[in-house]
Structure formats: structure tokens, C-alpha cells
Specification:
Shape: globular
CATH architecture of the largest domain: Alpha-Beta Complex
CATH class of the largest domain: Alpha Beta
CATH topology of the largest domain: Spore Coat Polysaccharide Biosynthesis Protein SpsA, Chain A
Number of domains: 3
Number of helices: 12
Number of strands: 15
Structural class: alpha/beta
Helix content: 25-40%
Order of helices and strands: EHEHEHEEHEHEEHHEHHEHEEHHEEE
């Protein structure tokens, strides 16, 4: 088997459904499997997977065992030569894995490969490519200077070597993953991707950012970003520093101080409510049931020409490919004017997010 796609889920039923449908489209011509690990969700995610995706391998944990342990569970039963660690609040293009697997064939000592991530508004996510966060860089990030935290030696459109990839999307040979013992289970949430990337580099492999495919990562959906996030993230960084850098009393004091500063001074963004003037359904036919539940006018279009400011575009993936949908999200002339939703194939909901720091919006219709 060529590829195992491993998706860790926790209480994001609708985003998971969209994610799996996009992955199914992307592996249609690849010898591949999908493994979903559920960390004791309470939202009927497991029931949905069993009903809609009986071919998907499902692991149902009886408690939330965290990111590292759950993904390691998935890798343990994976059969693919390559594995892809994938967040449930992502959407991949139909050719994402084909392009990445072709890229792997031309690289020696390949470690982890990541790709270009955009959020639900179409904005590039700089954590797609990062540097090793030594203490100085981490402190600069605390105070708002992220220039050296992100791998800015590469533009978002340039493929090349980087230190750290993001855990929302990591493609790696299963043999390499097992060689470095996978995700470190001392981490519960956050920092695992930095730690794994660093250990893969130390083992003599090369990590790459691959710019020639783009995926959507809604980001706030599977883990709401707030002050607790800041505390958990910097606690994870403390684990990372103790494992990989020489520690002393001054070092520990500075890191502890940084964690406290991050917790108390990290501000939470207020997300503006959706103020769409009207909804534009990009499809072949109007969906009357959807039209009934939306609060504003719904206009049917076959493309995104002549879109007006503050419209909300709904891409019907029954007729529009995921690749085209992602392309339109990325269109800077479009995404600065409008917001986006996706209508998944054969589903009775639309879904999207107008901010990478919010939990997004799901509108259901019968």
C-alpha cells in the first residue's frame, strides 16, 4: 500500500465529514487507506463515520489521549509506505497526494513534507513553514515579532528545505516515523510537530515545504485558540527545550517567565459576526432547502464573475472540485471582498470560517 491518511478527530463532526470526503477524492487513484482516530468525541462523530464511510478504519478511544498518543495509535495499524498526519478541519485538493508523492520520488534522505496551508478566508498560514524555535526566537514571538519563528527565507510560493512543518499536515515515510519513534507522548497538545520535525532533522533527514499544492486548514475548529492555548503552547515549548537544549536555572527561569507573559498578555480577537449582503451559490441548480434557512437572498451563479463586496460564496462540491474551490479561496482579488462556505457533496449543511481564531460556522438544512 502506498499511503495511509491518519485523521485525529475531537468533536468536529461536520468538519470531519468534509475532510474525509476531500481525502476520498484525493486518493481515488492511489492505493491508500483512511484511518480516523476519535478521542472520545461527544458529537456523534463515530456514528457518522460508520454510516457514511464504512470503508474508513475507525479507532474509538474511550478517553481523550491527546494528539501524540492518538496519532501513534493510527500509525501502529497503518499499512502505507507513506503516512499523512492530517487535521480533521482541513480540505485537500484532488491532486494533493499525487503531487506530493511524485515530489518524494525525486528527493534523497527525505524527512517530513508539508504544503501550503490557507485558512477559511483564503489567507496564507505562515506556520506552514517554520524554524526551530530556540529560546530567543520564542521570546520574540511572545512579544509579537515572528519574523524568525517562521521560515521566511522561502516565499509561500517557493518549495525548499525548512526545519519545522505543521502537525495539521505532515507527509512522511512510515519507516522514518518509526525510526524516530513517532510523536513524543510526553506532549499532550502542541509542540509535538516541532519536536518530531527536530528529531527527524537530527536523524539526518531533510524536511521540505512543498508550495505546489494548497489545502484549507480552518485552524480554530479542532482546537479553539485562546489564553489557555497560549499557556499550553508555551508549556509544550518548555518540554521541548528541556529535551533538546542544555538546561540551567537561568534558562528555566526565563522560559517560565515567558510562559507567564504569554498567558497574561496574549489577547483574544473578537470575531465579527457574518454580515453577508447576500449568498452566492456556485452550482448548477438552486438548493431550495438551503435557500429556506439562509437569512439573506440566495443567488445562483455558475462561476465567481461579477461578485460584489460582502457577498458570501457557497461552493457546491457536488459540481465544483475541491481543487477549484481552494483556488478561489486563494484568489486575493476575491478573498479580500467576500467570505466563503462549502456545501459538501451529498450533505445537508454548509460550513466555513471567517476567522482562523474562531470555531467556524455550520448551517444545517433538511
Amino acid at each position: 500500500m502506498k499511503l495511509s491518511v491518519i485523521i485525529l478527530n475531537y468533536n468536529v463532526l461536520y468538519f470531519l465529514e468534509l475532510c474525509v470526503k476531500s481525502v476520498q477524492a484525493a486518493i481515488s487513484n492511489i492505493d491508500a487507506e483512511i484511518i480516523v482516530i476519535d478521542n472520545n468525541s461527544k458529537d456523534k462523530s463515530c456514528k457518522m463515520v460508520k454510516q457514511l464511510f464504512p470503508e474508513v478504519i475507525l479507532i474509538e478511544n474511550k478517553e481523550n489521549v491527546g494528539f501524540s498518543k492518538a496519532n501513534n495509535q493510527g500509525v501502529e495499524i497503518a499499512k502505507g509506505k507513506y503516512i499523512c498526519i492530517l487535521n480533521p478541519d482541513t480540505v485537500v485538493a484532488e491532486d494533493t497526494f499525487e503531487k506530493l508523492l511524485e515530489f518524494t520520488n525525486s528527493q534523497e534522505k527525505l524527512g517530513i513534507v508539508g504544503c501550503k496551508l490557507i485558512d477559511g478566508t483564503g489567507q496564507f498560514l505562515p506556520e506552514s513553514k517554520r524554524n526551530i524555535p530556540i529560546v530567543k526566537i520564542a521570546f520574540q514571538k511572545i512579544f509579537g515579532d515572528s519574523k524568525k519563528y517562521y521560515a521566511n527565507h522561502l516565499s509561500q510560493d517557493t518549495t525548499g528545505k525548512v526545519d519545522v512543518l505543521v502537525g495539521a499536515f505532515m507527509l512522511i515515510k512510515r519507516s522514518v516515523y518509526r525510526q524516530v519513534n513517532g510523536f513524543d507522548e510526553d506532549y499532550y497538545m502542541y509542540g509535538e510537530d516541532i519536536d518530531l520535525s527536530y528529531r527527524v532533522l537530527k536523524a539526518g533527514y531533510k524536511n521540505y515545504y512543498f508550495a505546489n499544492t494548497t489545502i484549507i486548514h480552518y485552524k480554530g475548529e479542532s482546537t479553539l485558540k485562546n489564553k489557555n492555548y497560549a499557556k499550553d503552547f508555551y508549556n509544550a515549548m518548555q518540554i521541548f527545550y528541556k529535551k533538546h537544549f542544555k538546561s540551567n536555572l537561568l534558562f528555566d527561569t526565563l522560559v517560565s517567565l515567558g510562559i507567564k507573559i504569554a498567558y497574561f498578555f496574549r489577547y483574544e480577537k473578537n470575531v465579527e459576526p457574518n454580515k453577508a449582503n447576500k449568498y452566492v451559490l456556485v452550482s448548477k441548480t438552486i438548493n431550495d432547502k438551503l435557500k429556506q434557512v439562509l437569512p439573506k437572498e440566495v443567488v445562483l451563479k455558475k462561476d465567481v464573475k461579477n461578485i460584489e463586496k460582502d457577498d458570501e460564496i457557497i461552493f457546491d462540491t457536488n459540481v465544483i472540485s475541491f481543487k477549484e474551490t481552494i483556488k478561489q479561496f486563494s484568489n486575493s482579488e476575491l478573498n479580500k471582498l467576500v467570505t466563503f462556505k462549502i456545501l459538501p457533496k451529498n450533505s445537508n449543511f454548509i460550513i466555513g470560517s471567517n476567522s482562523s481564531s474562531s470555531q467556524g460556522e455550520v448551517i444545517c438544512f433538511e
